[in-house]
Amino acid sequence: MNSDKVIEEIRRAVLSAGEIITSAARTELKIDEKTSSRDLVTQYDKLVQEKLIAAISEALPGAQFVSEESAEKGDIYAENAFIIDPIDGTTNFIHSMGNCAISVAWYKSGEPFYGAVYDPNAKEFFEAKSGEGAFLNSEPIHISNQTLENSIVLFGTAPYNPELADLTFDLVRKIFGKCQDVRRMGSAALDICHVACGRAGLYFEATLSPWDYAAAALILKESGGEFVNLSGHEIKLSLEKTSVVAGSKNIISESSIINH
Ligand code: 2AM
Ligand code: CA
Predict the structure, then answer these.
(1) How much is the pTM?
(2) Which atom from ligand 1 is nearest to the alpha carbon of 188?
(3) Of 209, 165, 163, residue with least CA distance to 184
(4) Measuring CA to CA, which of 76, 92, 108, 202 is 20 to 30 A from 235?
(5) How far is the CA of 120 from the centre of ligand 2 (A)?
């Protein structure tokens, strides 16, 4: 199957997984704690993961998978590696807050090739193929050209790492004085996509895993944005966690967030 056909299959699988999320039986949620009472998984995270892996394996036999809820992580640098977050924003999902997403990234030998982030409640499908621009529901998107003063700033609280709370809230306090307002939405993948399509000027979080950002990072870069860590270095895909800053070059510079 050629790569465009595989992408078609990914789209189909993601859209159909979206229906699992929107039609989830809320009264029958089985919530398990992973590392803490803030780090949760439900039977729907696992079901979406299973469906996505089955569909992609059929379209591209031999593909490797690095998926949040799977104990066994494949080779992230394989010729065809899929980095998946079946539900990004699980805490929102559990509390019926909306604002959660399916994130699927296709990396080839460590380089991004295709990324999809789908918000099934808002029916917004963000995607990008390397070198071909970024799209929201098939319409091209671009990063904001506003100043920080006229922008909303998004941030994540890295809730599984409470030792990072001081760093996070010090940064929020500083940036709050320089921007229009701040928001904490709860899905890193969607936050980065909101920056990619110009709704927000900046997003940061003190630590993220690859499945939280792998697809959205490509969407952001294809929309003209910068994706760096809090030291200003470009983020190379890795199983290691990393801090993340997403925005336009100008807004990142105005925010003084790098090496604050
Ligand atoms: P999840 O919903 O898939 O668990 C919330 O701050 C956002 O960051 C969500 O996208 C959440 O993903 C992710 N996240 C939260 N805390 C994290 C941590 N300590 N490490 C990695 N990802 C985290
Ligand atoms: Ca998740």
Answers:
(1) 0.97
(2) 10
(3) 165
(4) 92
(5) 14
